[in-house]
Design goal:
The complex is a heterodimer of chains A (637) and B (439). The longest helix of chain A has 51 residues. Chain A is elongated, with a radius of gyration of 41 Å. Chain A is 76% helix and 0% strand. In chain B, strands 6, 7, 8, 9, 10, 11, 12, 13, 14 and 15 form a 10-stranded mixed sheet that branches. A 5-stranded antiparallel sheet of chain B has the order 4-1-3-2-5, sandwiched between helices. The radius of gyration of chain B is 26 Å and the shape is elongated. The chains are: A mainly alpha (637), B alpha+beta (439). Chains A and B meet through helix 31 and helix 32 of A and helix 3 and helix 8 of B.
């Protein structure tokens, strides 16, 4: 490179550098205020929006106004300012602002309908209507324009006018299926339930897939009976006009179910089943739903129909099982005698029942028996065997029959909770047979395999066996462990038995052992023998603290043997002859219950309960006695 | 002669019988004085097992034509009634502690109560007050502490609403209760948080329908008319008890007669921009010079409520207490009756209107309870015309911060609630026999 070339090169370089420098300088001089102004505006906009959120409309408006001077066409600013003016009730200013926006965007229907809204707020209803008329007039076939106008009216709580706009839209578009949900919602807000249902019926007619959605929407009203009734009228009318529409029939059935009109609902499901040729499946599903809602009578009816149709082999076994379960529950409802003994005894309450309703259970047993024969080695059979075992044991105290059934459950291939339950019951049966060694063995084996929730139950049964067999230390140890787990309901039972043992050890081993044995006899439902032994305890160990407990058990056993008068005498003796007994209040309550439940003598029952209040004011039974008195005398509590 | 003799004999016999009858009456009377009537004392101090049901027992006695002596400031404001097995049994059944008092015990109690140097007195309750509760037909249990208290105490009441008030039916009642109502027509100012909630929408629709049915264009107009109707009831000798937002919203409605203070979402048109200036405080019962809060998105009516509900105040319930003022039982029996309690410092509780700003309360009003060292008045009483009114701030004395939809308080878990006692004092107040004031 020559010197000239270098000079030329340097000249070029310096010229380029000078240009770049100039450009940078210009950019800095011109650009930096612009950037700073943008930052400032953005910060102001954020501030205005914050004021808006805080409801400080005046401050927000002032900032928006200053921003508008910088950017007169800024959409966000204009919108914010309009909102602020509206909230400040400065409707004229807001209207001017919209007019200004409309000059730029005359075809913006959204803005125009907002203008109508502002006139409406300002009380200029006629002007508002004329503005909206213009909006709608731009395209009478455009559904969205009607929505825009109606939205303004809805904002102003003018539901009737909004409804009119939607109806006008329907007329103009000649489309009666438009705005179904919108109208239903508006009619709902006005509590016009028939109109709501009419819209939803139309919606289902136009789109049958919407049944579930409609049910969900209607459920927000049907809690009110008048709303459900109104909806029923509409849907029933629709069914009369077009009888075979499945979605409408489903809606009708749902409305009946919602009002617990199960028979009417079943009628609809029959119809649906027939039309859809479901061969009983619809009726079966209804039966399941009714059973879940504890409507056993209608559930049984539904299952029975499925069984009698005998068309769907896939659901037949489940329908038969459902039918048997429903009948079992209906039979159990008649067995009310157990009420008197519920939760009163320490060890024997669970199974101390008298089977008044044996006759009705025979039919149920036959149904379960049929299931075990027709579906051997299946889950259905397992469940049926378990129910047979439970009925045989609980209701008939048929130990062999129950044992066979539970044993079968245990041998069937399916595993699960039923096996644990069956084994627990087998242990109970061995106890009832007085084969406590085998009972121990059953529970011991079970303890090795059961998951955690069952462990305490098994342990408690083992502790009870130890108690029956007078191994009081062992029993107390187990009970102590169970009672540590306060999250478990069994902790209460464990504590009760534990305290009983601890309190009465002072009576002596022989006395407590005899008492425990009498308890075992009662558990084995050998009531007469148990009664004799408890009576013997009361005589032989009259000076021990066991006396009042033995008397209470005697009274309970008299009741189980239907010796009501004797029971009353015994409870009376506890009250009158044992002034230091802590069971006197309980005995007094028992007397009340006997008069109330067994003898149906309301006045004497009230007297007895009043005696609890008068004589044992600090008793735990006071609240219960009070409640019973009030119920018996018919107070509205 | 015979006739005269027989007449004399007849007169003699008659005199003898009359004398015998008078003697018998005297004997009975002397026995009565000597042995007196045994009494049944329902102590209302800390020994009482169920303070709230005790009011129900007192009411029950009145219903059965008995009388009850309310022993003001004696063992927490105890009740003394004639002993009977029936009354004793009723106390037991309702779980109310009582103490049988012999005639001499009763005499000692009366003597103690009436001693000049004791701040105690006896008020005889002898009339069964007819109670009305102003609630909409759709009211929910969480709406109203008073109905909870009345139900628990088993005191019967009748529900009334706008139509009954406007048609003058309040004249049939002695006592009217208002709770958590909004007499301004702004639907409790729940708009910001609940405008999409079904219950809010239903409530607004129902109120609008009712207003139209009763011939009003707007709910706010109708509610103001109702407020005036209630004022007339008080002026004619009625007793009004109001809690929570029924208090300040009531006075605001009276002050805003003829002034639109409701925004568009409430009544469909904009409020009067000059509403604040147009308020007429001479029409109110309790408050004056308050400033309206007309922001529809704020959960507050005015600056009467303290602390304001929006934003919700942050307070430690463990340190929120208010103090009941002590009045002279013999000279000021009315405020004494209203403040009977087994404690003098009561646990605070919030509400849409929690307490009243003292500086806005008219000078004629008697302040019954206040949060010490603050401007927060919790309980106040006043007279208007021939009637009286008592207002109590807060929503539920046993639910510190009761929210919409919260379950109703189970008073069987709060049998000794001092806050609820203040409500029930009011219920018995109209049963009191009016006696000559000492001043």
């Amino acid at each position: 490179m020559t010197k000239t070339d270098r000079q030329i090169f340097h000249w070029h370089i310096s010229r380029s550098a000078r240009r770049a420098l100039c450009t940078l300088l210009c950019a800095w001089l011109l650009g930096s205020p612009a950037f700073s102004q943008q930052d400032d505006s953005a910060a102001k906009l954020k501030l205005a929006q914050s004021f808006e959120r805080a409801g400080e409309w005046e401050k927000a408006a002032t900032i928006y106004e200053s921003l508008l001077e910088i950017d007169p066409e800024g959409f966000v600013v204009l919108d914010g300012l309009r909102r602020s003016y509206t909230e400040m009730n400065e409707y004229d200013k807001a209207i001017n602002l919209v007019h200004r926006q409309l000059r730029e965007n005359p075809s913006d229907e959204s803005l125009l309908s907002a203008l109508g809204g502002l006139y409406d707020l300002a009380g200029k209803t006629a002007t508002a209507d004329s503005v909206w008329h213009v909006v709608l007039g731009r395209d009478r076939q455009n559904a969205n324009l009607y929505r825009l106008v109606a939205a303004q009216l809805i904002d102003h709580r003018e539901y009737e006018r909004a409804i009119q706009i939607y109806l006008e839209g329907r007329e103009s578009t000649k489309n009666q299926m438009l705005f179904l949900e919108e109208l239903a919602s508006l009619y709902g807000a006005l509590h016009q339930y028939e109109a709501v249902a009419s819209e939803y019926v139309k919606l289902i007619r136009s789109n049958p897939q919407q049944v579930s959605t409609v049910e969900a929407r209607l459920s927000s009203f049907t809690g009110r009976e008048e709303a459900r009734r109104a909806a029923l009228v509409v849907v029933q009318k629709e069914v009369r006009q077009t009888p075979e529409q499945i979605p409408i029939l489903s809606l009708l059935a749902w409305l009946y179910m919602d009002g617990k009109e199960y028979d009417a609902a079943l009628e609809q499901y029959r119809l649906i089943d027939r039309i859809t040729k479901a061969n009983g499946h619809e009726i079966f599903q209804f039966g399941q739903r009714a059973a879940q809602e504890r409507a056993y009578a209608v559930s049984a009816k539904a299952f029975r129909e499925v069984v009698e149709k005998h068309e769907r082999q896939d659901i037949l076994p489940l329908a038969r099982l459902g039918y048997a379960r429903a009948l079992e529950e209906l039979s159990a409802e008649n067995d009310t005698v157990a009420q008197l003994f519920r939760g009163t005894s320490t060890t024997s309450s669970e199974n101390a029942r008298v089977s008044e309703s044996q006759q009705t259970f025979q039919g149920v047993l036959a149904l379960y028996g049929g299931l075990t024969r027709d579906y051997p080695n299946t889950d259905i059979a397992m469940q049926a065997f378990f129910r047979i075992g439970t009925i045989r044991f609980d209701r008939f105290f048929d130990l062999n029959g129950a044992s066979a059934a539970f044993d079968t459950v245990r041998r069937l291939p399916q595993n699960g909770n039923l096996v644990y339950e069956a084994t627990m019951n087998l242990g109970e049966i061995q106890t009832a047979r007085n084969d406590l060694v085998r009972a121990h063995r059953e529970y011991g084996q079970l303890l090795k395999i059961v998951p955690e929730p069952y462990r305490d139950r098994v342990l408690f049964r083992i502790a009870e066996l130890d108690y029956f067999e007078a191994r009081f230390d062992t029993a107390a140890g187990s009970l102590q462990r169970i009672s540590m787990n306060l999250a478990n309901d069994l902790a209460n039972d464990a504590l009760q038995l534990l305290y009983f043992i601890q309190e009465n050890r002072a009576a002596g081993q022989e006395a407590l052992a005899e008492f425990a044995h009498a308890d075992l006899l009662a558990r084995q439902r050998k009531y007469s023998e148990a009664l004799a032994l408890f009576e013997s305890v009361t005589k032989r160990f009259a000076a021990t603290p066991l006396l009042d407990d033995a008397m209470m058990r005697t009274g309970d056993l008299h009741l189980l043997l239907n010796e009501t008068d004797s029971a009353l005498v015994v409870f009376g003796r506890i009250i009158n002859d044992m002034p230091t007994s802590i069971l006197r209040d309980r005995a007094q309550m028992k007397i009340g219950e006997v008069y109330e439940v067994r003898l149906k003598d309301k006045h004497k029952a009230i007297e007895a309960y009043e005696a609890v209040l008068a004589n044992y004011p600090t008793s735990l039974f006071v609240e219960e006695a009070r409640k019973k008195i009030r119920v018996l005398r018919g107070d509205s509590i | 002669m015979k006739d005269v003799n027989s007449r004399d004999a007849f007169v003699t016999r008659l005199k003898g019988r009359l004398l015998a009858a008078i003697m018998s009456i005297l004997v009975v009377a002397i026995q009565g004085i000597a042995f007196g009537q045994a009494k049944l004392l329902i102590p209302m101090d800390l020994k009482q097992t169920d303070h709230l049901k005790a009011y129900g027992v007192a009411f029950w006695v009145l219903q059965h034509n008995g009388t009850v002596d309310w022993l003001l400031n004696y063992r927490g404001g105890s009740f003394l009634l004639d002993f009977s097995d029936v009354a004793a049994r009723e106390c037991r059944i309702r779980g109310v502690l009582f103490e049988p008092a012999s005639a001499s015990d009763a005499s000692s109690i009366y003597a103690e109560v009436q001693r000049e140097d004791n701040n105690m007195d006896v008020v005889r309750l002898e009339k069964v007050p007819k109670i009305a509760v102003y609630v909409p037909p759709t009211f929910k249990p969480w709406d109203d502490a008073v109905t909870i208290a009345l139900e628990y105490a088993e005191i019967p009441y009748t529900k009334v609403w706008d139509e009954e008030v406007l048609s003058g039916k309040l004249a049939d009642y002695d006592w009217l209760h208002l709770h958590h109502e909004d007499f301004t027509g702004q639907y409790g100012k729940f708009y910001a948080n609940y405008r999409y909630a079904q219950w809010y929408i239903d409530q607004q629709t129902m109120y609008e329908k009712e207003a139209k049915r009763l011939g009003f264009r707007k709910v706010s107009d109708e509610k103001k008319a109702v407020a005036r109707g209630i004022k007339e009831f008080v002026g004619n000798g009625g007793f009004m008890f109001a809690m929570c937002s029924a208090t300040d919203s009531y006075d605001i409605a009276l002050a805003a007669e003829g002034v639109d203070i409701c925004d568009v979402m409430f009544d469909g048109d904009p409020p009067d921009p000059d509403a604040q200036r147009k308020l007429d405080f001479s029409k109110t019962l309790v408050f004056e010079n308050f400033k309206l809060d007309m922001n529809p998105l704020r959960y507050e009516y005015s600056d009467i409520d303290i602390p304001p509900s929006d934003p919700p105040p942050i307070r430690d319930p463990n340190t929120d207490y208010f103090t009941l003022f002590e009045f002279s039982a013999k000279y000021d029996p009315v405020p004494t009756m209203l403040t009977q309690d087994h404690v003098s410092i009561v646990k605070g509780f919030m509400g849409q209107t929690t307490a009243f700003r003292k500086s806005l309360i008219k000078r004629t009003i008697t302040i019954l309870a206040q949060r010490e060292g603050t401007e927060e008045v919790r309980f106040l009483h006043g007279n208007f015309g021939r009637g009286t009114f008592t207002w109590y701030g807060g929503h539920d004395p046993e639910d510190y911060q009761h929210a919409v939809g919260d379950p109703a308080t189970d008073l069987s878990l709060h049998k000794n609630s001092p806050g609820y006692r203040l409500i029930l004092n009011n219920v018995l107040f109209p049963a009191a026999k009016k006696k000559q004031q000492k001043t």
